[in-house]
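Record now logged for everyone:
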Amino acid sequence: MPQTRNVAILVGSLRKGSYNKMAAKVLQDVAPSHLTFETLDIGGLPFYNQDAEENPYESWVHFREKVKASDAILFVSPEYNRSIPAVLKNAIDIGSRPPPKNVWRGKPCAVATVSIGATSAMASAFVIRQTLVAVGLACLPQPEVYLGKAADLFDENGALRKDDTREFLRKFMAAFGKWIETIHGE
């Protein structure tokens, strides 16, 4: 049995009834038992400003400490205007600056995107992955998760309606669990 690994989850949607939050919950539910999860609140982080580095906001310090203490990162995000949500990009910037103190470098990560549209937030996933590689995260190459038509996937309580989607997500999380061990040299 692999050792217990703490996975920080960053959800790029702030909406209370977010399908991305629902998907993040399902991903936790189907994950291998050696993975534990903590969803990090990124909605209240002040926008990154290099001038604040001399006296960083307490929320920045706390966020960076949580990321640094995690063994891996799971990004679950929608797509806004064919790109990454500002709140998620801001969190990535806060964790990567200043470059010598980058808390992302070397950590394994995975990306899942969720959308009400048919394109499944693929454009966002590509931008997110490009950004994550730039800050030194080791992104799970395969499988990729793009969940489209999310309104049809979840019921009013956030439960996943489709068993084949649940099985796909279980396989994704199993691959992510193995990826975490590969990156950590286990």
Remarks:
- The CA atoms of residues 1 and 7 lie 17 Å apart.
- The mean pLDDT is 95.
- Strands lie at 5-11, 35-39, 72-77, 108-114, 138-139, 145-147.
- The chain has six helices and six strands.
